[in-house]
Design goal:
Length: about 900
């Protein structure tokens, strides 16, 4: 490792990198380099690579070569700027900022004004001709450095700042003069000395080195790890560190700082979007501590800078071919670009922007698919508030309105801190987190909450950016609502008080906040999939039009077909409207519930063959009628029917309930022969581990006539549909096969029944026979099983349970949370397929099965069939189709198209 370190380059000047080096320079460093290459006004600086961070995190110390490399780049920067870091009479000041490959807003650390000291603050004042500016910059350094680097409680600084404003009678920190700020610096230094046992460091290089280490350390803070788990960002990437010469937005009214978007990140609409704050530094905007003005107002304040910014925004969007998020500072009328990145956006904005960029000729249809994802589509399918149900005495009252920062409709109980949000959420309560402004320490509460409401900040505040990234509903800057976090209440201008625990409703699309529960209506996107709204209609929603176009792209692009898990005609019809191309799983056990349970009891209690035949004979016409309805609703499309799978005891009364009933009857000398027989049957069928007991194919082999009855019902239903001029395409699936011999026996019986029905009806029945691969042995012997199967359907729910040795119902409630928190799982293997374990078995079974039978049809019918990441895996391993619940079919269609487009390398960003 030391030799490798010696050969590595750990520091890159902004002139040396480009946007494709995000792995090495992080997103911020790579994009600063790219803007420098484009000739845009970027303050000079350099980037310490993620590789240096990895060495630090692994070993506890920086690479040996790093200090010398940083010194060389700092010397070059000082020569270019004509002044030294912290120089007494004219100090060079720098910012030290984190910047990982993937954007993690507010999760890691930043320190501005590095280089200021008791000695150089006077030099800065003299050079700027502004004593107030110098002391303001110094107090900001001590505050940020104290909190970030020295781990001082940030509330101590905030409290001292509030005391200073109160003593002055000032409304904001801008109203404090140079003398006030000089006193505040002294107070801040006292806080540092008291809390850390050392004076605030006066040596500029020590400040910079300590700040760099703090940024490295911030990669592994609890909030950063939590964010990575939430966003599924790998934990071993590390962060880069960007050291950039300072430009100042707090030099007076001709200076300021802002954040701009090349399109509205909330809606996707084109226009001028962003926030600007006069006489401020960048962190003031993101923190949301002072309310900003809309970016458009900059034109009246500084038209030259505004016009230049508009040109740069157009340049960046054309260059990146996407929505860009830009941070900038104006220093005495001169514009500087501090950051750009492909901007986070809401789900609706993602779909609109993707189609807009296609229309502009910047991207093609295949690449448009990479700009959206299934999780975003699922968000768009959630219900929204019924605007007509928010007034008129219908239980909800408008409290106020803020900035619509992240759309959606959310209802929950008001809470005023993250701890309570998490605690109540874990108890099953839906909560709305209400804060003056959020900061990175609120991440736990933001994840737990249904929505976030803040009284400060704008569309680029911490709350807004993080909420959009997580797909959470968010309203920011509701200034008229007074939030009192200490007393846990919110007050409206009219005097209405909302206490903790009161129900509130938040509309992230309009910015409206209501007291009480607002009724919801179906999403227009769901109405479109249901066929009740047409994308081509004149009054069609522009979002629906965008979704329609993206879905058309996906359907043209995808190779995987998408089927539905459906057990009745109603679900099947809905699935077909949603775009299903057949049924991949019909669970026949669901047809034995309700009034039919008694017929199953008769089958279980049958002592003689005649009684068994009678019970099966009663079930046959009911099953047949079910299948006729199902085949009719899916006419012309494949319908895979799984024969009975669960243990029979699930159709019998609960053993405790039945035992009590029998005991009470005996105490009354009122013997019920049927209950006694049922109790005996329940005891006989009772198993310690039913999931691995008498179920699936084993039922068909042990209980004569059960599977043949079902096969006959399927065949006769298909024959009836053929007679009615229909086109049934039934497939019979035998569950839980572990060895080919089981399948061969059931197949032989099934073929005999099919022949009998063909002869009796004269119908040309063509029913495929296959099996579920849901046991490790089945996957390992797939080549043998394929000799007797025309198709495989991977039952990844049970396959995951048997591979991991998990009982899903037990482990998810007991230790899964701990496993996720400890990083053993990045995500539950029941949500997204475990590619290394379960996935390897699937891949090997696909190869072995097709080696035996090249035309073997392959699908998946577990819940993973609708999971976006899993769909990509199934595309990669060569399955023919995925099957999922009806509501997830659009998501699976989209992800199947994205998987196909991605395999062709269509994303150019």
């Amino acid at each position: 490792m030391p030799e490798q370190e010696d050969r590595q380059k750990f520091v890159y000047d902004f002139t040396e990198g480009n946007k494709d080096l995000k792995d090495l320079l992080g997103g911020k460093g790579a994009n600063l380099a790219e803007m420098t290459n484009l000739g845009l006004p970027v303050p000079p600086g350099f980037t310490i690579t993620t590789e240096a961070c990895k060495v630090y995190l692994d070993s506890g110390s920086e690479p040996k070569a790093l200090c010398a490399e940083v010194s060389a780049h700092l010397d070059a920067l000082e020569r270019r700027m004509g002044k030294r870091l912290g120089q007494a009479d004219d100090p060079l000041l720098v910012s030290v900022r984190s910047g990982a490959k993937f954007s993690m807003p507010g999760m890691m650390d930043t320190v501005l004004n590095i280089g200021l000291s008791d000695e150089s603050v006077a030099g800065l004042a003299a050079q700027a001709g502004d004593e107030r500016f110098a002391w303001d910059s110094y107090r900001r350094l001590i505050q940020m450095f104290g909190k970030t680097v020295l781990d001082v409680d940030g509330d101590l600084f905030e409290s001292a700042l509030e005391d200073a404003k109160h003593a002055k009678g000032a409304a904001t920190d801008v109203d404090l003069d140079a003398a006030d700020l000089e006193q505040l610096v002294a107070r801040f230094k006292e806080i540092v000395a008291k809390e850390t046992g050392r004076d605030f460091p006066q040596e500029p290089r020590e400040q910079m080195d300590l700040a760099v280490r703090a940024v490295f350390d911030s990669w592994n803070t609890e909030r950063a790890k939590l964010y990575r788990r939430q966003e599924r960002i790998p934990g071993d990437l590390g962060t880069a560190v960007n050291i950039c010469s300072m430009v100042f937005g707090n030099l007076g009214p001709d200076s300021g700082t802002g954040v701009a978007f090349t399109r509205d990140p909330a809606s996707g609409q084109q226009g001028v979007y962003g926030d600007y704050l006069q006489n401020a530094q960048g962190e003031d905007v993101v923190a949301g501590i002072r309310n900003t003005v809309p970016l458009a107002e900059l034109e009246a304040l500084d038209k030259a800078s505004y016009d230049q910014l508009m040109q740069i925004m157009e340049t960046l969007e054309t260059h990146y071919k996407d929505l860009c998020d830009i941070e900038f500072t104006i220093e005495r009328g001169r514009l500087w670009m501090l950051q750009t990145r492909v901007g986070k956006r809401t789900a609706g904005a993602a779909f609109r922007i993707a189609t807009q960029l296609v229309d502009q000729g910047l991207i093609d249809e295949a690449e448009a698919l990479q700009r959206v994802n299934g999780a975003q589509l699922a968000q768009l399918m959630f219900p929204r508030f019924d605007e007509e149900g928010t007034g008129g005495g219908k239980g909800a009252r408008l409290l106020g309105r803020g900035i619509a920062a992240s759309p959606g409709a959310a209802v929950g109980k008001a809470v005023f801190d993250s701890y309570t949000a998490v605690k109540w959420s874990r108890s099953g309560e839906k909560v709305i987190l209400i804060r003056r402004e959020t900061n990175p320490d609120d991440l736990n509460g933001m994840i737990a909450a249904e929505a976030i409401l803040t009284s400060r900040g704008g569309k680029t505040s911490h709350a807004a950016v993080v909420a959009r990234g997580m797909g959470k509903t968010c309203v920011c800057g509701a200034e008229e609502l007074e939030v009192d976090t200490k007393r846990r209440r919110m007050t409206t201008p009219g005097g209405t008080v909302i206490e903790e625990g009161d129900t509130v409703s938040i509309d992230g699309s309009s910015g409206k906040v209501y007291l009480g529960e607002v009724p919801v209506v179906p999403s227009p996107v769901v109405e479109y999939f249901e066929g009740r709204m047409h994308a081509g209609a004149d009054d069609a929603d522009d979002l629906v039009k965008a979704v329609h176009r993206i879905m058309a792209y996906a359907d043209r692009m995808r190779r995987l077909r998408v089927r539905a898990n459906a057990d009745n005609a109603e679900d099947a019809s809905r699935a077909r409207r949603f775009g299903a191309q057949g049924i991949g799983l019909c669970r026949t056990e669901h047809m034995f519930l309700g009034e039919r349970r008694e017929l199953v009891e008769h089958l279980i209690l049958a002592d003689t063959e005649a009684e068994r035949e009678e019970a099966l004979g009663a079930l046959l016409p009911l099953q047949k009628a079910d299948f006729i309805e199902l085949f009719e609703s899916m006419d012309g499309l494949p319908v895979t029917v799984r024969l009975l799978d669960p243990p029979l005891h699930e159709f019998l009364p609960d053993i405790t309930e039945l035992s009590v009933r029998v005991a009470l009857a005996e105490s009354r000398k009122d013997h019920n022969e049927n209950d006694l027989r049922l109790l005996q049957a329940v005891h006989k069928l009772h198993e310690q581990n039913p999931m691995l007991g008498l179920r699936g194919v084993r039922l068909g082999l042990v209980i004569p006539g059960l599977f043949t009855m079902q096969v006959r019902a399927i065949a006769e239903a298909a024959a009836a549909r053929i007679e009615a001029k229909g086109d049934p395409r039934a497939e019979i699936m035998i569950p839980l096969v572990g060895t080919v011999q089981e399948l061969e026996i059931v197949r032989e019986d099934a073929e005999r029944v099919l022949a009998e029905v063909r002869q009796a009806t004269g119908a040309d029945l063509k029913l495929a026979l296959g099996t579920m691969i849901e046991l490790p042995r089945a996957a390992l012997t797939a080549g043998q099983i394929a000799e007797a199967a025309e198709f495989f359907s991977f039952g990844t729910n049970d396959l995951t349970q048997t591979v991991w040795g998990f009982s899903r119902d037990d482990v998810e409630a007991s230790f899964f949370t701990a496993y996720l928190e400890k990083g053993i799982f990045g995500v539950s293997p029941f949500e997204t397929i475990d590619q290394d374990g379960v996935g390897t078995l699937v891949r090997d079974a696909v190869q072995a099965g097709r080696a035996t039978r090249p035309d073997l049809k392959l699908g998946v019918c577990g819940e993973h069939g609708g999971d976006p990441d899993s769909v990509h895996f199934f595309h990669e391993v060569g399955l023919d189709y995925v099957s999922c619940s009806p509501f997830r079919i659009p998501v699976a269609r989209l992800e199947a198209g994205r998987a196909a487009a991605k395999s062709k390398g269509s994303d150019s960003r």
